[in-house]
Amino acid sequence: MFCPHCGADNPESALHCQSCGKPTRTAAQAGNSGTSQTVVIQSPGGYGAAGGVNPAAQVKVPWILTIVSLLCCGGSCCYIPGIIALIFCIMANSAMSAGDIAGAQAKAGTAKMAAWTGIILGLVMTIIFVVLQIVFGVLAPIMAAISQNN
After folding, report:
1. Contact partners, residue 20, CB within 8 Å, separation at least 6
2. Please, which residues have CB within 8 angstroms of residue 19's CB and are 6 or more apart in sequence?
3. Cα–Cα distance, 105 to 89 (Å, whole number)
4. pLDDT tens-digit profile of 39-49?
5. Beta-carbon-side half-sphere exposure of residue 143 (alpha carbons within 13 Å)
6. Where are the domains of the chain?
7. What are the tens digits of pLDDT across the range 101-147?
């Protein structure tokens, strides 16, 4: 059985969630546990535990990837993809809390794409910066020597 509060998987006989500690059944439902009646508990968002798969567990919000994106873009002054990824991570969490699993998956996908864009942009800008530093660092003494000989 899945917890109606946090979505954690619990044994069928559990009265309280092993993860968050909140009750998994009401007192009336707990009293019927000795009969053959099956009680299906759904979360407030409307998705149930049909098939033994909790849909909320399938949504992976790319928080770490977003933070890495923000850090990679920091050196190149290009925070926009990281900020977009952060906003979509927050929106995915809100959609997941509301029970909109499809919306949460779509927003998490957009967040992941924006985060990877930020990481790639940050790395490209860093490589360009390093190459320019090397080129101008090597050429500066040569240019100074040429100008002194003339």
Report:
1. 3, 5, 6, 8
2. 3, 6, 8, 10
3. 10
4. 344 444 444 44
5. 6
6. 1-53, 59-149
7. 888 899 999 999 988 888 888 888 888 888 988 888 887 788 788 88
